[in-house]
């Protein structure tokens, strides 16, 4: 990758990071969600029934962090644990109506910031980044 391409990718990454942080701050303030807990909710709603290990792999966090965060989110009513029918030692995580509302509001906010006419451009950028990954 030459300097120009690196600069372009870095610029996209920083802009994406800033966009995510803006959305995260808004949603966290509205729902009183702490830290990066929003990302857990988004992963759970988008992938209903994942176990804690898969959530950790998706978010690149260790098992104890996942357990602590899910405890908090469960206490606050965003997610619920259900015992896996095949493996009783394992829990699957599902969203609650409150968790689904957070997800819907996050999507709405994203769509307000990124107009739908930019969707093709966004898909091209993501496809390029996926190839590099």
UniProtKB/TrEMBL annotation:
Source organism (scientific name): Mesoplasma lactucae ATCC 49193
Q: Which GO terms describe its molecular function?
A: DNA binding; DNA-binding transcription factor activity
Domain of life where this protein originates: Bacteria
Q: Tell me the keywords, alphabetical order.
A: DNA-binding, Transcription, Transcription regulation
- In this record, what's one Pfam family? MarR
Which InterPro entries does the entry mention? HTH_MarR-typ, WH-like_DNA-bd_sf, WH_DNA-bd_sf
Protein name listed in UniProt: Uncharacterized protein
Keyword tRNA-binding tagged = no
